[in-house]
Specification:
Residues 42-61 bind DNA. Pfam families: TetR_N. Residues 19-79 form the HTH tetR-type domain. This protein is an all-alpha fold. Helices cover 70% and strands 0% of the residues. The chain has a single domain (17-222), classed as Tetracycline Repressor, domain 2 (Orthogonal Bundle). The protein contains 11 helices and no strands.
C-alpha cells in the first residue's frame, strides 16, 4: 500500500504544564468522540480515558460542545493538510492507476489517523437539527474542502454539478467504509481491521467509481 504523504509528525514539544494538560484532554476527547456519538459521550468519559479527574476538563473546556468543536477543528486541519498531497503526481498515471493510488493514500491516512472518519460516522446518523449540532461548520468544511481541492487539482471537463455528485458520493462511501471498518469487516467475515479488508475497500471503491471517472472526470483519457 502506498503510504506516502499519509502522516506527519506535528506533535508539539516543550509544552508548559497547562498546555500539556490541555493536550492530554484533547487526546482523550478524540478517543471518546471516535467511539461514542456526541450525545452519548460525557466529560466524565473523557476524564476516565485520560486518567485524570473530570473537573479539570471544565477549567480548559467549560462545555462539552466546546471540547467537541476543538476536536473537530483539529481533525479538519489534519485532513486538509494531508489531502493536498493525495493528488501529488497522479497526472503521471493512467486514470485506472491514478484512482488506485489515490484510494491507497486515503486508506493509509485513515490507518494512521483513525479518529477522524470514526468520529464522522459516530455522529452523522444522529444529527436531527444540524444547525444546532456542535461543530456543524467543521462537518461542512470537511466536505467543502475536499470538493474545492478536487476541482483545483484534477483536470476535468465536467459540470460543477457532476463533479459535486461524484466527490460527495465518493466521500460518503469512503467515510462509511473507513469510519465503520470494524463493523463492515465483520459483515464480510474478516477478523476485524486487516490487510484483506483494506484491499477490499480499495478494490470496491475503485470498481464503483472508475467508470464515472473515466466518463466525466478524466475525459481526455476516455476519448
Amino acid at each position: 500500500m502506498d503510504t506516502s504523504k499519509a502522516t506527519g509528525n506535528n506533535a508539539p514539544r516543550n509544552l508548559t504544564k497547562g498546555e500539556a494538560t490541555r493536550r492530554r484532554i484533547l487526546d482523550a476527547a478524540r478517543k471518546v468522540f471516535s467511539e461514542n456519538p456526541y450525545h452519548a459521550a460525557s466529560v466524565r468519559m473523557v476524564g476516565k480515558a485520560g486518567g485524570f479527574d473530570h473537573p479539570i476538563i471544565h477549567y480548559y473546556f467549560p462545555k462539552k460542545a466546546g471540547l467537541f468543536e476543538c476536536v473537530m477543528e483539529e481533525h479538519v486541519v489534519e485532513f486538509r493538510t494531508f489531502m493536498e498531497h493525495w493528488f501529488d503526481g497522479l497526472d503521471a498515471y493512467t486514470t485506472d492507476k491514478g484512482l488506485a493510488v489515490f484510494i491507497e493514500r486515503i486508506i493509509a491516512f485513515h490507518i494512521a489517523n483513525k479518529d477522524l472518519f470514526r468520529t464522522l460516522m459516530q455522529n452523522t446518523a444522529h444529527v436531527e437539527n444540524f444547525d444546532q449540532f456542535p461543530a456543524s461548520a467543521q462537518y461542512e468544511v470537511f466536505h467543502d474542502s475536499f470538493l474545492k481541492t478536487f476541482r483545483k487539482k484534477v483536470h476535468h471537463n465536467a459540470s460543477d454539478e457532476e463533479v459535486s455528485k461524484f466527490v460527495y458520493s465518493f466521500t460518503v462511501l469512503a467515510a462509511n467504509y473507513l469510519g465503520a471498518s470494524s463493523t463492515y469487516a465483520r459483515f464480510l467475515g474478516m477478523e476485524g481491521e486487516c490487510d484483506a479488508y483494506w484491499d477490499w475497500v480499495k478494490e470496491t471503491i475503485h470498481y464503483l467509481f472508475l467508470p464515472r471517472m473515466e466518463k466525466i472526470i478524466f475525459d481526455s483519457e476516455s476519448k
